[in-house]
Design goal:
The complex is a heterodimer. Chain A is an alpha/beta fold. Chain A has five domains: about 20-170, Phosphotransferase system, mannose-type IIA component (Rossmann fold); about 185-270, Histidine-containing Protein, Chain: A (2-Layer Sandwich), CATH 3.30.1340.10; about 295-305 and about 430-520, Phosphohistidine domain (Glucose Oxidase, domain 1); about 310-420, PtsI, HPr-binding domain (Enzyme I, Chain A, domain 2, Orthogonal Bundle); about 540-820, TIM Barrel. In chain A, strand 19, helix 20 (about 680-700) and strand 20 (about 710-715) form a beta-alpha-beta unit. In chain A, helix 9 packs across helix 13 (about 400-420) and helix 11 crosses helix 12 (about 380-395). Chain B has helices at about 5-30, 35-50, 50-55, 60-70, 75-90, 100-115, 125-140, 145-160, 185-205. The longest helix of chain B has 28 residues, at about 5-30. Chain B is globular and about 45 Å long. The chains are: A alpha/beta, B mainly alpha. At the A-B interface, helix 3 and helix 9 of A face helix 4 and helix 5 of B.
């Protein structure tokens, strides 16, 4: 072969181009007297198609004019689809100068031919490099880089940086410095007015928008910290609260349009979300009974145990990087198809959960590390499992309950993809659970739950899980009994072992999974099952009835909520609002959740109530609910110690977080009232009110909407009950549990004093009667919360004593309405 | 080269011409459907040079034919077959031609194909025929030429058939993944055709 070394670099007589695409050199302002321009890297576009090669070259030229020489080398020697070594050689020769030539190609064969061409060219007057990268983006970027005077290495690096970007569907997550030279970066800010801030749903919409504007390289952040808007996990990690300033920055193609669209999206988010928000997951667990099985969804099931293996067998490695990469793609594609099919079949909350999972499958933060592992030699299944576990671990370690809840979704998605790799098809394990089966599993995931036909199946027993996780919400809504936190003592019973899943709730003994029950136990369980069904049916009829006594007296019946998730078990229109929402259950044993998580929880209650009153009680810790590090230790008599409002006021740092969240919730939706527990003196109300005013002023100065909600007290201390007129409050609610203890001087849990601790004690009744009369006289609403409302006879005595507002557990709402309707 | 050299060129071009449609059909099943057309274009161009090639020593002729294939084929098979021939030609150089030197040349050529395609046997490519043939030749150097030729053709046929059950992991067919199973690899088929053509010419003149 002769080697083309005879060509003049740059400004010399240049070989005429084939196909009439000879670039013209513009006079360079920096040209020296000798007439030589500063050399730029030449670009050779190789494609199987002449049209593609010409088109790509034209697009690149459009970016840089004639500053960079660009040659197209497309088609086979006959001009058909293919590649032509001769044409590539001619293009490289014509482009060659001291700055060198970068060759971009489309498919594998073009690379082989380009390599061959370069090899056969032999010695040249400048370097040649073949760049791996997406052809169109690569050529445009290479042209822009070259026009800025970048040397060959820099041009090649810029193109190859696009490989990772193309694989992940995004450009690098670093801010600004990945900007495309020559395209001005665009930045705009707005205030996030969406209640709850940038939570999962707006995040999903933002990521989808960013993907539609992929070339713009949209970033989102606070102004100092930016993440790629294309990664759901990155955007979620920003955790931007309502009222914060959100900044968008784009530097790629279509930057302005992308930023404008993102701003419009944020500003267009309704102030009130359209559907019930995703439940705030994870944290709100009852501090008590951590080790015991808990009812996540009440009910009773009798049937064979069926083991649900959530981790599929990993497939045999294929031993080839590309085959493994394809296995990953195929599995992700299949998982996405399955999730789409599932989400078409469900509604609202379930579909929203699945939407998050579908978006996770598109998340480069998840998928990119997997690809890197595969390229490094891991089999796809191993790479996927390890990368998922790392991300799950990071999210679980996050202090933010939001990210913790996302970890469960990620695990769910992870298993689905592994199943797809292992060829388990739809995610339904080959042997489908038999009729009435009690599905025993480590953790039941939402998508797994939704893929089973619960009309035929009995219930769920989870070794782990929590009563407040997504899947519990789904189970309650579908009336599927579910126990969580069974622990390992259940072991691995032989599939088909007869069992009873007793999740009848706290009234009827310990929730449990009974294996190999006796005939009597089965008979009893079946009887209770029938009774439960009958009761539910007959009570359901009462639920829709108004709470009016035979005498025409309208009684306000509200519900008492122990955990935010409890609202999933009752329809708001069946009650008059929430009479008591306990917030001590936000406490997870170490700390209260942050302001955002608290706000989410309160806001969710308000959304649910739809304008009906929601009475949230500030932390009632201490006493029988000690709080490590906060309660005064070793109090001789904790019930008479620093508890309730006393403890909160003694810890203003923690209390203020709760008041801030409450003040924001009060401004975000109507209906919020705040109740203070264990109030003894009017000063306690006034101190709290002053703190409230402080945090509201603080929030407003931060640009966040906030209001001081109406204040009320739980009447449980006799001193307060006897002088209720001294308190400047807008409502009171009698906490009978503690009031009875303090009036009778008898502990509620003392078996020996069962007769003394008497809800119907004349002293107690007189106090209640006097409070009711005071309410009627002054117009102060006087309600009763506490166990007395849960027993029909005691409820009747309350009505008799003049009480017209009660708050009852959701499960007893129907019964309470029936008692009222049949009274007096 | 000699009259044998000219006969080799003609035989190779003939077999590709005769089987061009078959190769294209095979390639249409799992590739971009141009293997037969491309190879025919390349080998026709080589055939046009028969006289020039015949005047060169075998090494030089192979090299020249290889370059022609590279320039004319217009698909990945051009550089692959081209590299094979160029490397074989370089290996033979002006030196003596014997079974041993041919075996060594084939070995160099196959290595070059591996490097060019970043592949090896097992990926459903021409290497699934070339590699076993090379090994067969290397293992049978001491046997009489007719035996060697028979054995090589058997190995080529068997190896070709084995590509039917393979899943392609290289080239355009790899885009199909598991769906590439059940089809002969067109590159392996063209390699078999060329090997048979060469063996036939050598057998006649032996």
């Amino acid at each position: 072969m002769t080697v083309a070394t005879d060509l003049e670099p740059m400004m010399g007589a240049r070989t005429p181009m084939r196909r009439g695409t000879a670039p013209t050199l513009v006079p360079d302002p920096d040209a020296t007297e000798a007439g030589t321009a500063i050399p730029t890297v030449g670009l050779c576009v190789v494609s199987h198609s002449p049209l593609v090669a010409e088109g790509v070259a034209a697009m690149a030229r459009q970016m840089v004019g004639s500053q960079v020489r660009i040659e197209a080398a497309g088609g086979n020697p006959d001009g058909g689809l293919g590649t032509d070594v001769g044409r590539i050689q001619a293009a490289v020769r014509s482009l060659m100068g001291p700055a060198g030539v970068a060759i971009l190609f489309d498919l594998g064969g073009a690379e082989t031919n380009a390599e061959m061409a370069v090899e056969l060219l032999g010695e040249l007057s400048g370097p040649v490099r073949i760049c791996h990268g997406p052809l169109v983006e690569g050529a445009v970027l290479a042209a822009v880089e070259a026009s800025g005077g970048a040397d060959l290495d820099a041009v090649v690096a810029a193109v190859q940086a696009q490989v990772a970007a193309a694989v992940a569907g995004t450009t690098e997550a670093e801010p600004a410095d990945t900007a495309v030279p020559g395209i001005p970066s665009v930045e705009k800010a707005t205030t996030l007015t969406h209640p709850g801030g940038l939570h999962a749903r707006p995040c999903v919409r933002l990521v989808q928008l960013a993907k539609r504007h992929a070339a713009a390289d949209l970033k989102v952040g606070t102004g100092t910290h930016f993440v790629s808007a294309i990664s759901l996990s990155a955007v979620l990690s920003l955790r931007m609260p309502e009222g914060s300033t959100i900044v968008f920055r784009a530097s790629g193609l279509g930057a302005r349009a992308a930023v404008d669209a993102a701003i419009a999206l944020i500003e267009g988010l309704e102030r009130v979300p359209t559907a019930s928000g995703l439940p705030v997951g994870g944290r709100m667990e009852d501090a008590a009974g951590a080790a015991a099985a808990r009812v996540a969804a009440p009910g009773l099931a009798v049937g064979p145990v069926w083991l649900d293996t959530t981790v599929p067998v990993e497939p045999e490695p294929l031993g080839d990087v590309w085959a493994e990469a394809e296995r990953l793609d195929t599995a992700i594609l299949q998982a996405r198809r399955e999730l789409m099919a599932l989400s078409r079949a469900v509604h609202d909350d379930a579909a929203a959960i699945l939407a998050v999972q579908i978006e996770l499958l598109n998340d480069p933060a998840l998928v990119e590390p997997v690809r890197r592992r595969i390229i490094a030699g891991d089999p796809a299944a191993v790479a996927w499992r390890v990368a998922c576990a790392e991300l799950v671990g990071r999210q679980k370690a996050a202090t933010d309950p939001y990210l913790q809840a996302r970890a469960a979704d990620l695990e769910d998605v992870g298993v689905r993809v592994l199943r797809a790799m292992a060829g388990h098809g739809s995610g339904v394990t080959p042997s489908y659970p038999p009729d009435n089966a009690i599905v025993l599993t480590d953790v039941m995931t939402p998508s797994r739950f939704l893929s089973l036909d619960w009309r035929r199946l009995g219930g769920v027993a989870q070794r782990g899980g929590s009563a407040t996780c997504h899947v519990a919400v789904l189970a309650r809504a579908r009336r599927v009994p579910m126990l969580v936190r069974l622990g390992t003592q259940v072991g691995n019973p032989v599939p088909g072992t007869p069992a009873i899943l007793d999740a009848e709730g706290r009234d009827s003994g310990t929730p449990s999974l009974i294996l190999n029950p006796s005939d009597e136990q089965i008979t009893d369980a079946k009887r209770r099952q029938t009774a439960l069904a009958t009761r539910r049916e007959s009570e359901a009829a009462w639920l829709t009835q108004p709470a009016v006594g035979r005498n025409g007296q309208k009684i306000t019946v509200m519900v008492t909520i122990d955990t935010p998730a409890a609202i999933d078990t009752v329809a708001p229109e069946h009650c008059d609002g929430i009479g008591l929402a306990r917030t001590e259950f936000l406490w997870d044993g170490n700390a209260l959740p942050g302001e955002e998580a608290q706000f989410d929880a309160y806001y969710r209650l308000l959304r649910w109530a739809g304008g009906r009153p929601v009475i949230v009680r500030t932390m009632d810790l201490g006493g029988d609910k000690p709080m490590a590090g906060l309660s005064v230790e070793e109090e001789a008599n904790p019930f008479l110690g620093v508890r309730g409002i006393r403890l909160s006021l003694a810890n203003p740092g923690i209390f203020r977080v709760q008041l801030r969240a409450l003040a924001r919730a009060a401004a975000a939706a109507p209906g919020l009232k705040v109740m203070l527990p264990m109030v003894t003196r009017p000063e306690e109300v006034e101190d709290t009110r002053a703190l409230f005013h402080q945090v509201v002023a603080e929030l407003r100065s931060e640009g966040t909407r906030a209001e001081v909600p109406p204040l009320g007290i739980t009447v449980e201390v006799p001193a307060a009950a006897l002088t209720i007129e001294r308190f400047d409050v807008t409502f009171v609610s009698i906490g009978t549990n503690d009031l009875i203890q303090y009036v009778t001087a008898a502990a509620r849990d003392s078996a020996a004093l069962r007769d003394v601790y008497d809800p119907l004690d004349p002293g107690v009744r007189r106090l209640i009667r006097e409070l009711a009369e005071h309410g009627k006289r002054t117009g102060l609403p006087v309600a009763v919360c506490g166990d007395m409302t849960a027993h029909s006879d005691q409820l009747r005595s309350l009505l008799e004593d003049g009480i017209t507002e009660v708050s009852v557990p959701p499960a007893l709402l129907a019964r309470a309405k029936r008692t009222i309707a049949e009274w007096p | 080269m000699t009259a044998v050299g000219a006969r080799l060129v003609v035989a190779a071009a003939d077999t590709i011409r005769t089987h061009a449609d078959e190769l294209t059909t095979l390639d249409r099943a799992i590739g971009d459907g141009d293997h037969g057309i491309n190879l025919r274009r390349g080998f026709d161009a080589v055939a046009e040079q028969t006289e020039e090639l015949a005047a060169l020593p075998l090494g030089g002729a192979l090299e020249k034919a290889g370059v022609t294939l590279v320039m004319k084929v217009g698909g990945a098979s051009g550089p692959l077959y081209g590299s094979l021939l160029i490397a074989m030609g370089k290996s033979l150089g002006d030196g003596p031609v014997s079974v041993a030197t041919i075996a060594a040349a084939l070995s160099d050529g196959v290595e070059k194909v591996k490097a060019r395609g970043r592949s090896d046997a097992g990926a459903k490519t021409m290497l699934d025929v070339l590699v076993p043939v090379r090994e067969c030749l290397a293992a049978n150097l001491d046997r009489p030429v007719p035996d060697i030729l028979t054995t090589i053709q058997e190995v080529a046929d068997t190896s070709l058939e084995a590509t039917r059950d393979m899943v392609a992991t290289k080239g355009r067919a790899s885009f199909l993944g598991p769906r590439s199973r059940g089809h002969l690899d067109p590159g392996a088929r063209s390699s078999t055709l060329l090997i048979r053509a060469v063996c036939a010419v050598v057998g006649e003149s032996a």
